[in-house]
Structure to design on (850 residues):
């Protein structure tokens, strides 16, 4: 069994932690999930640290949903810096999954985006731990999580980056 | 007994440290409070560190009230980065409770907001230490401290986010 | 004897280090001062570290006077981050005393402000080391260094925050 | 044999990792390449750390292609801070090779720029490890990677900095 | 013999490392110089670290010339943060000497400014290591490196801060 930690927040408006846990378990039976929930994104670095140290996580998914205000973006920035610091201090990867409220036009799109980005990053987390060669096969291919992939520069169809609202996720 | 540290400032215009101490003691008889006061928010990281190391705190609430000027926001940003660094270095959680003077319209609202945010974060701090499962039950439910909760995206009533001034805190 | 370190700069236009040393000695006969001077504010973090490690300082006052340009504000920001990091790494408090040239209207006001802020922070430094209970008694009272105190939100007189130029310091 | 690590991303739209690996091998037969691919630039610091610790890299090239949005620039900033932190923590050099999508006018130019910058930084990486005296010989000569060199201030021809689109890379 | 390290870049358009080395040797026969050159300012923190650890430097001069674009300023900011971190981690001073291309009007002024600032900071570096009392004698006197000194606030002549282009350096 390999252990992946999940740290999420009560601030988020979608239960991203539950989505991540379910996706990880579906992806590979060898993955064991440990989870902790904290108030906001600035609490995620220490939460990740404790998952590494106290619960044996080899990789942590840090999930958050910063608000729209400028102050919220500052908080997210501080949280990101702290997550990177924590990973470097502990020598273990942290996959940051942040969904900004301002990215979506309404609650329905926000829910959709949060789910999809979380699921796609759960695949990344699983590959980082169990199938690193899969990531190298996708190197330089313009992968995006939540939105449509940008694709590699050599891709034949310029339509890939033009589209209506729904196409943003196609 | 579990020990929670409180670090607050002489710069703040509301005695947030006293509010936090009283709330924590009311919440659970098993919580013991240790407190230190410093001049401003930039002094909070070392104050938190000393509460961890010298006074046996397992978790610290760091309370501050940055002013309205741009420079004050920079100070708050530096303080936040330092608090996250301290938590990660020590491996112990710090619950940051900052109230910005510019968030409130007048002294009365500022007092109200400082009290309410401090109280709600005292509940978070207590839960993080004694009842972590309660935080996971609130995961993804759009909790806010001081202002009204945003609620989960699936919430039936859009009125939750519309309201007059008083309703901001309802 | 208790030892307080003073780190100041040749960039500053007022001899803040001398003011701090004199004030500390006047405040309490038990305080011994050690001092080092560096070119600019970005050199203060290492200077503070050396005062802690090589000269036995228990607390350091870091004094600087950043210029008016945007670049000077960036330097001050980097210096502040470094000072907080140093304090957290060493587990000892650093009282930052920065006076920005742009805060004052002319050289006379700048001199006045630098002196006053340095003196008031010397009192803070002394209290942090010898009388921490005095700081807790001032918790949440809106203390300011150099300018007039903002006062607590419950203060009766709104005139406290209205005034002419001279009243800024009253 | 000397070992250089390559960390690149699936987010990038050009396979910068493959270009770097090929260039390094062509430059010097004594260079052995180890490579890891992660989702985005914020994952590069821990990836570099693991290449140092687990795979014996003496130097790491960290390759990424941040997007055009303001948020992407923030991510790149956080990644850069993390890479510098990692290098300083481990005491080993990390050559950051970031190509911003906004630097190029179209996919063709982006491909060209990514390739050229990667190749030129591979030469730097090789020289840092095997021929440090070559870098000192180029000290102060206005080297640029990807775009045309700015040249030293004493250069005779002012035309060096004037040119049409193609000349940007000449 | 005392050892000062010099770290400079191939990105700079003036050979600041050579100027620093020559000036240091001229200043005091007891100073031994060790030098390393890296591609850009973001490589300076690790370069300084290696000069401390591998080459016995007691102090490092970190020389760089960031470009005019906003991105270049971000790089310089990250480099400065990394240099401060390195100094604090190692407990040894790093004198940062950055000249921004945008500070000068043309190549001739840029060359002049780079030379003068480097020379004046070499004096600072020498004094920090061998004559710290000289810095304390200059405390609060408004020293500037490259441009004219601002002077202390009590200086009699306001003309010190008024002048034509040439007077900027007088």
């Amino acid at each position: 069994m390999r252990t992946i930690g999940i740290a999420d927040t009560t601030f988020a408006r979608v239960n991203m932690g539950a989505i991540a846990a379910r996706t990880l378990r579906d992806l590979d039976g060898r993955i064991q999930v440990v989870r902790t929930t904290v108030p906001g994104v600035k609490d995620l670095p220490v939460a990740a640290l404790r998952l590494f140290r106290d619960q044996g996580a080899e990789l942590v998914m840090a999930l958050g949903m910063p608000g729209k205000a400028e102050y919220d973006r500052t908080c997210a920035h501080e949280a990101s810096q702290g997550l990177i610091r924590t990973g470097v201090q502990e020598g273990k990867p942290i996959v940051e999954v942040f969904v900004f409220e301002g990215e979506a036009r309404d609650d329905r799109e926000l829910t959709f985006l949060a789910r999809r980005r979380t699921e796609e990053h759960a695949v990344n987390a699983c590959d980082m731990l169990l199938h690193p060669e899969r990531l190298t096969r996708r190197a330089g291919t313009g992968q995006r999580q939540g939105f449509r992939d940008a694709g590699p520069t050599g891709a034949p169809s310029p339509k890939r980056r033009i589209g209506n609202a729904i196409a943003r996720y196609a």
Notes: The interface with chain C takes residues 8-18, 35-39, 42-43, 45-47, 49-50, 53, 67, 71, 74-75, 78-79, 81-82, 85-86, 89, 107-108, 110-111, 114 of chain B (CB under 8 Å). The radius of gyration of chain B is 16 Å. Residues 48 and 87 of chain B are 9 Å apart (CA to CA).
